[in-house]
């Protein structure tokens, strides 16, 4: 298994962060690696979608957990590579601030080997994406 996690503390409200998560058409604004993303239904557990990242082929994912204003997770299974990628997005209220955490877990029979190869590449943009997410949620950028 391979893991990565990054957190920020912000004055943005959980509602404003959640709205940016839920509205997938906004993902390209806060995650500059996302070229296109579509869902085959509402932003709910079990709904599938397709995402295209810069320099990569489109890939399928499934929303595996969704709890409004608290968290969502999406999973991509790459059977031929022998791995599963789980992306977790958590929102926690701490008094007047909000803690936002994004994490990635690579699991499966080839997770150790492939995780060390692709994990850093997959996660390198997360800090910048989270900064953009925060700025959008606070209304600092549009």
Could you list some keywords that capture this structure?
142 residues; alpha+beta; Alpha-D-Glucose-1,6-Bisphosphate, Chain A, domain 4; 7-stranded antiparallel beta sheet; 7 strands; globular
Explain how this protein is built.
The protein is of the alpha+beta class and 142 residues long. The chain has a single domain (2-138), classed as Alpha-D-Glucose-1,6-Bisphosphate, Chain A, domain 4 (2-Layer Sandwich), CATH 3.30.530. The chain is 27% helix and 43% strand. It has 4 helices and 7 strands; from the N terminus they run E-H-H-E-E-E-E-E-E-H-H. It has helices spanning 14-22, 27-30, 111-123, 126-138; strands spanning 2-10, 34-39, 48-53, 59-67, 71-78, 83-94, 97-107. The chain has a 7-stranded antiparallel β-sheet with strand order 1-7-6-5-4-3-2, with helices on one face. A hairpin with an 8-residue loop joins strand 2 (34-39) and strand 3 (48-53). Helix 1 crosses helix 4 (126-138). The longest helix is centred in the last third of the chain and has 13 residues, at 111-123. The mean pLDDT is 94.
Give a topology summary:
Layout: E1 2-10, H1 14-22, H2 27-30, E2 34-39, E3 48-53, E4 59-67, E5 71-78, E6 83-94, E7 97-107, H3 111-123, H4 126-138
Helix pairs in contact: 1-4
């Amino acid at each position: 298994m391979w893991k990565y996690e990054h957190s920020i503390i912000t004055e943005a409200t959980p509602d404003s962060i959640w709205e940016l998560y839920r509205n997938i058409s906004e993902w390209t604004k806060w995650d500059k690696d996302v070229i296109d993303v579509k869902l085959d239904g509402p932003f709910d557990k079990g709904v599938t979608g397709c995402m295209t990242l810069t320099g990569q082929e489109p890939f399928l994912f499934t929303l595996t957990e969704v709890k409004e204003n608290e968290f969502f997770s999406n999973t991509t299974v790459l059977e031929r590579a022998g791995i599963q990628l789980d992306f977790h997005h958590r929102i926690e209220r701490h008094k007047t601030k909000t803690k936002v955490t994004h994490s990635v877990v690579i699991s499966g029979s080839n997770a150790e080997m492939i995780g060390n190869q692709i994990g850093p590449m997959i996660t390198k943009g997360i800090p910048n994406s989270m900064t953009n997410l925060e700025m959008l949620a606070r209304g600092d950028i549009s």
